[in-house]
Write a structure and sequence with these properties.
Helices cover 35% and strands 23% of the residues. With 399 residues, the chain is of the alpha/beta class. The protein has two domains: 174 residues, Flavin prenyltransferase-like (Rossmann fold), CATH 3.40.50.1950; 204 residues, CoaB-like (Rossmann fold, 3-Layer(aba) Sandwich), CATH 3.40.50.10300. Helix 1 packs parallel to helix 3, helix 5 packs across helix 8 and helix 10 crosses helix 15. Bound molecules: cytidine-5'-triphosphate. Cytidine-5'-triphosphate binds next to helix 12 and strand 16.
Length: 399
């Protein structure tokens, strides 16, 4: 379903790729849907398409020359990227991606990127070898780590005649990404979201522990996505190597019992609890003070850990509670039982034969009304947004 972009202020950066002509179509669609668009072109982009084309369609001056006296006036006009709702760079060349990743500012577009406080969306387009090069991939992951969104290029025939990944994403995919960002902006403001992430470690002795393969990525992606949508976010994390997302308050814990206290101590302040952590169900009944020496055979007695989410379910109030169910069989049935038993609003069922520890995930969202929403394989960040879309819908007061 097409949604209006009325009242939205977008900066469209066009860089020097053969796909620059496709930016004309992007501009037409954005303006047709009601957005006000200011186009910024790099020097090489102007070799592919003239600024006049964009100027005519956007009915605004096109920003090209950093060293004009008009700079201040023009940049003030586009709100020095501070008033814009979105900076979209399509197509984004390897060169511009590298400049953004490293903070270079030698043209109008890179200056705008550095002074922008709005969300940034990049649509890369380049030859397949360039796109696959570790330098480009590292730059992209650095930018993603900073919260920049990327519409991945498509697989297909490239300008060079070669076939591979590097073609600018389809117009519909770029517009969908624009819509998603603009419509999600600020829809969690006023909410306090508590997210748990990662595994827990249950010590056996000073050097050994029981744990699981959770990477923490799903929970961290949810924390980031909730922050981008305006929530105040607290992240209770088990041991992971992931960096703390800027703007998120993080508390590190090791064991399930520590996580239990960290979560329940903060429950009063929380309006939305999302338990993405893979909490160990058991811990060794005793923890040896000294390193256990090897012997012929050994039996470890395990005792149950407290169920954090079930306890939060008992104290639910007006909070929205979201759980995860990692399963290897009877996915939907097991997930539904957990949703009911723990008094949850949503449960995200995860077939761990697909998505444990990796970059992508294939999840199914179940609700209290019996609804089952099966999502396709998505990046964890996109899956996070889809889960939050459902949370936002639940938080809206019923008319
Ligand atoms: N969870 C929790 N505290 C625990 C165990 C799990 O809060 N001690 C949360 C998880 O973070 C997840 C949800 O409960 O959101 C489901 O966890 P899971 O371990 O899959 O469910 P269990 O009810 O423990 O069922 P089982 O282990 O039998 O699959």
């Amino acid at each position: 379903m097409e949604r209006s972009l009325e009242g939205k202020e977008i900066i469209l950066g066009v860089t020097g790729s053969i796909a620059a002509y496709k930016a004309v179509e992007i501009l037409r669609e954005l303006t047709r849907r009601g957005a006000a668009v200011t186009v910024v072109m790099t020097e090489s982009a102007q070799r592919f398409v003239t600024p006049l084309t964009f100027e005519t369609l956007s009915r605004r001056p096109v920003l090209t020359d950093l060293f004009t006296l008009e700079y201040d006036k023009q940049i003030g006009h586009v709100a020095s990227a501070g008033r814009a709702d979105l900076l979209l760079v399509a197509p984004a060349t390897a060169n511009t991606i590298a400049k953004c990743a490293h903070g270079l500012a030698d043209d109008f577009l890179s200056n705008i990127y550095l002074s922008s406080t709005c969300p940034v969306l990049l649509a890369p387009a380049m030859d397949l070898e360039m796109y696959a090069h570790p330098a480009v991939q590292e730059n992209l992951s650095r930018l993603k780590g900073r919260g920049v969104s990327v519409v991945e290029p498509e697989y297909g025939e490239l300008a060079s005649g070669l076939i591979g990944r590097g073609r600018l994403a389809e117009l519909s995919a770029i517009l969908q990404a624009v819509e998603d960002i603009l419509h999600r902006q600020g829809d969690l403001s006023g909410e306090t979201v508590l997210v748990t992430a990662g595994p827990t470690q249950e010590p056996l002795d000073p050097v050994r522990y029981l744990s699981n393969r959770s990477s923490g990525r799903m929970g961290f992606a949810i924390a980031e996505a909730a922050r981008d949508r305006g929530a105040h976010v607290m992240l209770v994390s088990g041991p992971t190597f992931l960096p703390t997302p800027p703007g998120v308050t993080r508390m590190d814990v090791t064991t399930a019992e520590e996580m239990y206290h960290a979560v329940l101590d903060r429950l009063d302040d929380t309006t939305i609890l999302i338990m993405a952590a893979a909490v160990a169900d058991y811990r060794p009944s005793t923890q040896a003070r000294q390193k256990i020496k090897k012997r012929e055979a050994m039996t470890v007695e395990l005792v149950r850990n407290p169920d954090i989410l079930a306890e939060a379910g008992r104290r639910k109030g007006s909070r929205t509670l979201v759980g995860f169910a990692a399963e290897t069989e009877e996915l939907i049935q097991n997930a539904r039982e957990k949703l009911e038993k723990k008094n949850l609003d949503l449960i995200v069922a995860n077939d761990i034969r697909v998505g444990f520890g990796g970059e992508t995930n294939r999840v199914t969202i179940l609700d209290r009304e019996g609804g089952v929403e099966e999502l396709p394989e998505l990046t964890k960040r996109e899956a996070a947004h889809r889960i939050l879309d459902r949370v936002v819908a639940l938080r809206k007061p019923t008319p």
